[in-house]
Design brief:
This protein has about 110 residues and is mostly beta strands. It has no helices and six strands.
């Protein structure tokens, strides 16, 4: 059973440069990495870029992230929490939450 709790997150993300193991291509709205919030569990999210058309490896930008409902999801995400952007088992960037709006609640 999926959790009824999810989040809309505004965050600042930074992509690792390609030469340090990051992506080879830029990301744009619709990018769906997995996110790890200081845990071994990864959560899927869809990214919408706010102030630019794309973010290239080695660059940063402000984004909205819609976490996709999962079986288990943290219930206490908040401003200034850090996270890692992953593609499979490979870290491709990091981020800091600016705001986290909880959507729905589990009973």
């Amino acid at each position: 059973m999926l959790s009824k709790t999810t989040y809309n997150i505004k965050a600042k993300i930074s992509l690792l440069p390609t030469e340090l193991g990051g992506r080879k291509n830029p990301v744009s709205t619709g990018y769906r990495p997995s996110l790890a919030f200081n845990s071994i569990q990864h959560f899927s999210g869809e990214i919408e870029l706010l102030d630019q058309q794309q973010i290239k490896p080695g660059q940063s930008g402000t984004v909205l992230i819609k976490l996709i409902p999962a079986k288990h999801i943290r219930k206490n995400l908040k401003s200034n929490d850090a996270f890692t952007l992953n593609e499979g088992n490979k870290a491709v960037g990091s981020g800091i939450i600016i705001t986290a709006e909880k959507i729905g609640t589990d009973t």
